[in-house]
Amino acid sequence: MKFRIIKLRSLFQIITPFRRLILCAENRKEMEDWISSLKSVQSREHYETAQFNVEHFSGMHNWYACSHARPTFCNVCRESLSGVTSHGLSCEVCKFKAHKRCAVRATNNCKWTTLASIGKDIIEDEDGIAMPHQWLEGNLPVSAKCAVCDKTCGSVLRLQDWKCLWCKAMVHTACKDLYPRKCPLGQCKVSIIPPTALNSIDSDGFWKATCPPSCASPLLVFVNSKSGDNQGVKFLRRFKQSLNPAQVFDLMNGGPHLGLRLFQKFDNFRILVCGGDGSVGWVLSEIDKLSLHKQCQLGVLPLGTGNDLARVLGWGGSCDDDTQLPQILEKLERASTKMLDRWSIMSYELKLPSKPSILPISAYEDSVAAHLTKILNSDQHSVVISSAKYATSATSNENVLTRGPHAARRLPRRLRLLRLSSWITSVDGGALPGSIYRV
């Protein structure tokens, strides 16, 4: 498949007639940078339904380049994978292995998400619909033992024997038909929404989930992939491996609305937010918008730094070991519930009544000085009388005396500097020669 990428000021435009892109990179960080850049060109308005369905329910593998410390084999051609990172790909959800040259031929059989994705393997009996095991061949751990005969299984020489992606049971090829067909979903079954529970789509194009009796309180997981030093990406991958990928959401791709919309019909469910205090506040705000606060409980898995809420609730300041996820889920299932007050702050703008403008005392001083200068220099009797009236009213103004008593007391000294020894103001505003006018 050919595609063209145009780069202009860090913006990308993808031109391709196909929906499917196979992207390879030298390392995980480079792969994430490419994915982020490609997703940035997608319109957020059109993300909700279409992108949600493609990423969660398509059955396509999510590849990333990886190296292997022990012999590993391609699930497509069954040949050995080189230990060099650039030669091998792994699905971050189901751990399906493939050469780069073989990835395009891999079948879309990633971990099931819906009833439709199970296909003809579905089990129907007198109890209704049940989920079978989803087997992946080969590449078993060294310590693997068969769940039927309890003997060592797997091989470092070839691709052989099987592992269930849900309950993690491992069996020999010869013992596979002897193992019970129904999958018990493993130690996380209380938190898992089985694919059989996602069996219909509403009028808006969203999947509707029905809670089976075996799943009394399913877990909805939100992960901030940008939190911590790449810890968010690692936890996102681990959660998809342990739970149904359809119940795990990246807050950086679509926000919390899609996940809450999927779970809103449940009478009771739990939410786990993996990130900082900002991520928790984001999810809580969306819960308020959808009025779901009476039917869900929220837990926090702190990633990064500054996680005050997680410390208060007893989850610690930070979690950086994604291998401990099974133990974390077990603790979450046994956790107690506490009430949390959350305040809404509403602000109002009130216009205060405007106060009458009062000139500062310096303005009065300058004005009085200007009029006194006119008194000294003018030969017109009317100008002298007018300036004298203003000087009298200004220096006796209540506002001036109230707002600037100290400055008002300085006026006599400033007047004396003008050497007004030949003028005196009468009661009616007339100017008479004699002695200096005192304030």
From TrEMBL:
Keyword set includes Cytoplasm: no
Entry EC number(s): 2.7.1.107
Catalytic activity entry: 1,2-di-(9Z-octadecenoyl)-sn-glycerol + ATP = 1,2-di-(9Z-octadecenoyl)-sn-glycero-3-phosphate + ADP + H(+)
Start and end residues of each Phorbol-ester/DAG-type domain: 60-110, 132-183
Residues of the PH domain: 1-43
GO molecular-function terms, A-Z: ATP binding; ATP-dependent diacylglycerol kinase activity; zinc ion binding
Gene3D superfamilies in the cross-refs: 3.30.60.20, Pleckstrin-homology domain (PH domain)/Phosphotyrosine-binding domain (PTB), Probable inorganic polyphosphate/atp-NAD kinase, domain 1
Domain of life: Eukaryota
Any one GO biological process: glycerolipid metabolic process
Residue ranges occupied by any DAGKc domain in the UniProt entry: 214-349
GO cellular component annotations of the record: plasma membrane
Annotated metabolic or biological route of this protein: Glycerolipid metabolism; Lipid metabolism; glycerolipid metabolism
Top enzyme class: transferase
Keyword Kinase: yes
InterPro entries: ATP-NAD_kinase_N (IPR017438), C1-like_sf (IPR046349), C1_DGKeta_rpt2 (IPR047480), DGK (IPR037607), Diacylglycerol_kinase_cat_dom (IPR001206), NAD/diacylglycerol_kinase_sf (IPR016064), PH-like_dom_sf (IPR011993), PH_domain (IPR001849)
Keywords: ATP-binding, Kinase, Metal-binding, Nucleotide-binding, Phosphoprotein, Repeat, Transferase, Zinc, Zinc-finger
Pfam families: C1_1, DAGK_cat
Family statement drawn from the similarity comment of this UniProt entry: Belongs to the eukaryotic diacylglycerol kinase family.
Protein name: diacylglycerol kinase (ATP)
Organism of provenance: Chelydra serpentina
